[in-house]
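check this:
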Amino acid sequence: MLSLGKKAELLKVIAHPVRIQILEELTKGVKCVSDFEEFLEISQSNTSQHLTILRTHGLIDYYMDGRLRCYFLRDPLVPDILEILRKDYQEELPPPACCPVTKKGVYPGQRRH
């Protein structure tokens, strides 16, 4: 089981739009560097930087096919996280009816920010 620190680190690594796109594509199967260039609108060197970050943290890996680097997912948690991120929630959670500790008071319906 991952420690809280490792879980937080995993979320930090994933938390970039380009890295989410890369991981989404890798859930569909192996991709070579040239495949990423087709859908990412960034430079090849920037793509390589993102791939390196994901690889360094053990989320992905690659094998060589001739001169091509072909990337694939390694961490089984990644598809689960991405599936949660794809969900479209229509509503917020309902507010509590009262304080769960004192069981007194009525929740006014507006949250303090």
